[in-house]
Amino acid sequence: RRMKPSRNPNSLPPMFARRFLKALTTINLSRRRSAVSARARRIKQAADVCLASAAAACNAKRAWSRAVLKRSRAVLCRQRRRQLRERRRIMAVPKSESCQQGRAELLRQLVPGGVGMDFCGLLEEAADYIKSLKAQVQVMQCIADSLSC
């Protein structure tokens, strides 16, 4: 499905696209030769940071975008290893808790900044995060389509 161009240049998709293309240019101009997996990580991190900064510029009240930006500032190896361990643990569904509590905890860990939120606020943050991720995927698909021609 094609993304409709937004008439407002300050809305999320155009703002994300501008920031992401600028970040991709910076990554491509980098003189450092890296492995494909390291390059993929840099592109993913750039996409996450661009999405969060565009979302923060559009709606500064969202905790997930602030959490993503805060997390992106700390790029130490120790934190990366901790995040990888956390992601593996998140994938395992808790079996000892009740189903609803387990799902709420899983959602808290999936939404950046979701730990410590009340359930209603968590659902609002998750909805906004999903909407922003959808916009990110659509913009990146448009970029990929335009580069493949």
TrEMBL record:
InterPro entries assigned: bHLH_AtIBH1-like, IBH1-like, IBH1_N
Annotated localization: Nucleus
Record key words, sorted: Nucleus, Transcription, Transcription regulation
Presence of the UniProt keyword DNA-binding in the record: no
Keyword GTP-binding: no
Short name of one Pfam family: IBH1_N
Range of residues in the leader sequence: none
Descriptive protein name: IBH1-like N-terminal domain-containing protein
Organism lineage string: Eukaryota, Viridiplantae, Streptophyta, Embryophyta, Tracheophyta
